[in-house]
Amino acid sequence: MSRLIALSSYANLQQELDQRKATGSVRSRRLLQSMQGAHIRVDGRDVLSFCSNDYLGLAAHPAIIAAVKRGADTSGAGSGASHLITGHHQYHQQLEQSLADFVRLPQALLFSTGYMANIGAVTALMGRDDAVFADKLNHASLNDAVVLSRAEFKRYPHQDMQALEKLLAASKARRKLVLVDAVFSMDGDIAPVPELLSLCEKYDAWLMLDDAHGFGVLGAEGRGVLQHFKVQSPRIIYMATLGKAAGVAGAFVAGENTLIEYLLQNARTYIYTTASPPFLSAGLLASLSIMAQESGRRERLLTLITSLRSGLSDCRWKLEDSPTPIQPLIVGSNEDALKASEQLLQRGILVPAIRPPTVPKGTARLRISLSAAHSLDDVSMLVDALREIC
Ligand SMILES: Cc1ncc(COP(=O)(O)O)c(C=O)c1O
Question: How far is the CA of 4 from the centre of ligand 1 (A)?
Fold first, then answer.
């Protein structure tokens, strides 16, 4: 009997999978057979890649790899326990201090991933009597965090400050939190942080910024969105990930000492999980010092962004208005986006087609992601191929 029930459940799953296939929305994985970078080997083939979030080209940096190896030699392969038991290694501690200094906030708390940082922070701070105000294009991890927190979930149209103000003005919630991607992951545009902050001040709300795609990239010294806008406020809860521009893995939340101590006591994704291997923190310490010292990487990125945008300015498909390394080329239908991605691949260039539900219906796109590891010639190759295809 139970086997029969199991079989009928599988039939339902298969039906859903078939439906995905019919609508061109099946996702599949490519097999990476090299280090991450501009030129990679995937599925047995060498390609020029515009697919990673390795914006500064640090994922394969020899000094970071060496620091990871040295870190493993002195701290071992794994942490062996959660942070609050015996897993909190001196590398973690040093990294938290360096991250707080880097973003110029009083204190930071390290999480194993950005997904866990968002879930942990939002669920610790918000509950049933509270309300979260979120941009409709926020990352999935932020949306999941709000649902898990059981707070009232109020979403406003992308970047619409008037709509946000109306929602804030009407709210009677105990605690209010405005929650946004600082750089939108599928669009590349930057949240208007000064305007968001003044609304938060007016309506007594916190502002949580997910700077996954701005940390290391934005600001004169790569310190992220706060440096970009030159803003600081005790209302700000800053979160950034360490697997993108920083080239390794992990994430952190930074802000006032009381906030961080509260998260340490209450964030379940911090407390009830094994601490990340300390050698990752050793690698991240090396990564942070490269990010601080090598401003040339950010300058190269800006040159590449300008070159791509001017090369595609008269293309039938339009680039979103993005000043960041995320440069989405809107194609429209799922089929056309997949076809364009396939045609690029035939020319040895890898650019992912991003489709609903990750992006709104009818806005399937090629998500071109630039890295300081690219050369101007790499970008010219992409521009020529795209002009031919579109
Ligand atoms: C905006 C944003 N927030 C959070 C995350 C999750 O970070 P992580 O990959 O470290 O879990 C991502 C992507 O991965 C992201 O794009």
Answer: 39
Which residue is closest in CA terms to ligand 1's atom 7? 114
Instruction: Provide the pLDDT confidence category of residue 23 given band limits of 50, 70 and 90.
Output: confident
Please report the atom of ligand 1 found closest to the CA of residue 118. 4
Query: Which is catalytic among the residues 149, 185, 341, 369?
Result: 185
In this prediction the pTM is 0.96
Pick the residue whose CA is nearest to atom 10 on ligand 1.
Answer: 114
For the stretch 302-346, pLDDT in tens is 999 999 999 999 999 999 999 999 999 999 998 999 999 999 999
Task: Return d(Cα 135, Cα 143) in angstroms, integer.
Answer: 10
Q: Which domains does the chain have, with CATH numbers?
A: 62-293 (3.40.640.10), 295-350+362-367+384-390 (3.90.1150.10)
Q: What are the tokens at 321?
A: 């208005």
Ligand 1 in contact with 36 (CB < 6 A)?
no
Tens digits of residue pLDDT in 108-135: 999 999 999 999 999 999 999 999 999 9
Pocket lining: 139 vs ligand 1, CB cutoff 6 Å? yes
- Measure CA 361 to chain center: 21
3-class SS letters over the chain: CHHHHHHHHHHHHHHHHHHHHHCCCCCCCCCECCCCCCEEEECCEEEEECCCCCCCCCCCCHHHHHHHHHHHHHHCCCCCCEHHHHHCCHHHHHHHHHHHHHHCCCEEEEECCHHHHHHHHHHHHCCCCCEEEEECCCCHHHHHHHHHHCCEEEEECCCCHHHHHHHHHHCCCCCEEEEEECECCCCCCECCHHHHHHHHHHCCCEEEEECCCCCCCCCCCCCCHHHHHCCCCCCEEEEEECCCCCCCCCEEEEECHHHHHHHHHHCHHHHCCECCCHHHHHHHHHHHHHHHHCCHHHHHHHHHHHHHHHHCCCCCCEECCCCCCEEEEEEECHHHHHHHHHHHHHCCEECCEECCCCCCCCCEEEEEECCCCCCHHHHHHHHHHHHHHC
Which amino acid does the sequence have at 192?
Answer: P
Q: Please state whether the peptide bond connecting residue 323 to the residue before it is cis, i.e. omega within 30 degrees of 0.
A: no
